[in-house]
Amino acid sequence: MPHSNNPSKRRPSIFEIAKMYNEPERKESKTKVIINSNRLRYGYNATISAFLATAYDDNGKKVDSMQGYFLEPKTDYDLATTRNSDTAIMPGTYNITPKWHEDQKYEWYLRNTKGRTGIAIHGGRNGNNTTGCLIPGCSFNTFRHEKGDSLTINNANEKKKELFDFFKKYGNGGSADISGWYIGNNQE
User: Fold this and answer.
1) Contact 79, 73 (CB under 8 A)
2) DSSP state of 58
3) Which residues are within 8 A (CB) of 61 and not within 5 positions of it... i.e. 6 or more apart?
4) Which position has the higher pLDDT, 139 or 12?
5) In Å, what is the CA distance from 164 to each residue of 53, 80, 124, 157?
6) What's the pLDDT score for residue 184?
7) Of 17, 103, 128, 166, which has the fewest CB atoms closer than 10 Å, so is most exposed?
8) Assign residue 15 a region: left if phi > 0, alpha if psi is -120 to 50, beta otherwise?
9) Which residues of 149-173 are buried (b: 16+ CB within 10 A; e: fewer)?
């Protein structure tokens, strides 16, 4: 069963989440897009983050933004820098670049992920569809399970296309700031 809409346990809307973000700081670089992503829910099979992607012109002025969610594998910070660990990456700042080798399977990758390689942004539905990558979505579901919360992402292909079009329109990649904090008592 999906998580209840009990007001005391209600998850914030994406618009409420966007208000919680500080305006991303424009760094001196050729980066045109900055993504702030904050982890919201930790399930036994996946981790959910809300993100805000902000585009800047050459003068550092905000020109556009978009919002969504990312699904990553479950979070285990003891293994987050271990190759092939099937866990979410460590919080940090990463460069996002288009694929740089013809053998790469996906369009966009996070670079400089300590101890990890091949961390991409791609489609999917749940934690079984990623071993560290980010799956964008329009919303997410929480299902109660005997092992803990089971998390899934919705409309991944739609949000992935929107995000990739955003990258292509406003720059050749960008940077992502993945923060490890969460809202409420979602981590048990």
Assistant:
1) no
2) T
3) none
4) 139
5) 11, 25, 15, 10
6) 36
7) 103
8) alpha
9) bbbbbebbeebbebbeebbeebbeb
